[in-house]
Amino acid sequence: MTGAPAPSRSVKHGRTALICVGVAFGMLGASFAAVPLYDLFCKVTGFGGRPMVGTAGAGKILDREMAVRFDANVAPGLGWKFEAESPEIKVKVGATQTVFYKVTNRSERTVTGIATYNIAPEKGAAYFVKIQCFCFTEHTLKPGESFEAPVVFYIDPEIAQNRELDGVHAITLSYTYFASKSGQPVAEDKAGSSKDDAGNSKL
User: Fold this and answer.
1) Percent helix / strand / coil, the chain, rounded to 5
2) If we measure between CA atoms, which residue out of 72, 79, 80, 45 comes closest to residue 151?
């Protein structure tokens, strides 16, 4: 008894091509989904030097004090001045703190910028809880225009339970402002330059 005829070679090739296309689209979709998922993972775990995100204070304040340093950077070509009201403060673990950053557009054109951030040392990021922040929000400034933005945070009291962090006495919150395109930071502002004719930075 003979079975059904075997599929022709062209049919086999067609099926293989369809499978390959399906796999390619699946990988492409996964890569796009991975970006927000990775971002969410970093926010929840503090992985990659990303601070934790909170909605309220710690509810407990310890006697342990730590220094928090505030680093402010501007990518080349943006033409902004960016600084914290204080380069460093002493805080009690668990106490909610507010620090303001000031940004000024020193260029002669209207510019849109966006800030990214990081925590050092990286292992301290899981205990730095950010309640309010101006990061990843576009800001457009006219020439000479300024604005002040708060950062509200606390250091999670759970840090005291991690004996590996007993030697950590300071945490640095580092921001960098980039020119923004479609809500995403770009490494260099192609619309203009912040350097003079001699090649010196005007910042």
Assistant:
1) 25, 35, 35
2) 72
Count CB atoms within 10 A of the CB of residue 13. 11
ω into residue 87 within 30 of 0, thus cis?
A: no
Residue pointed to by tokens 């479609």:
182
Question: How is residue 79 written in tokens?
Answer: 């033409």
- The pLDDT of residue 100: 97
Instruction: Compute CA 64 distance to the chain's CA centroid, rounded to the nearest angstrom.
Output: 28
Indicate if the alpha-carbon torsion angle 76, 78, 84, 85 is positive or negative. Answer: positive
Q: Are 54 and 128 in contact (CB under 8 A)?
A: no
Please answer whether residues 53 and 158 qualify as being in contact, where contact means their C-beta atoms are separated by less than 8 angstroms.
no
Task: Report yes or no: 160 and 93 within 8 Å, Cβ to Cβ.
Answer: yes
CA distance 161 to 165: 9
> 117-138, pLDDT tens digit by residue?
999 999 999 999 999 989 889 9
Instruction: Tell me the per-residue pLDDT of 157-183, one tens digit each, with 9 for 90 and over.
Output: 999 999 999 999 999 999 999 998 876
Give domain 52-186's CATH superfamily. Answer: Ctag/Cox11 (2.60.370.10)
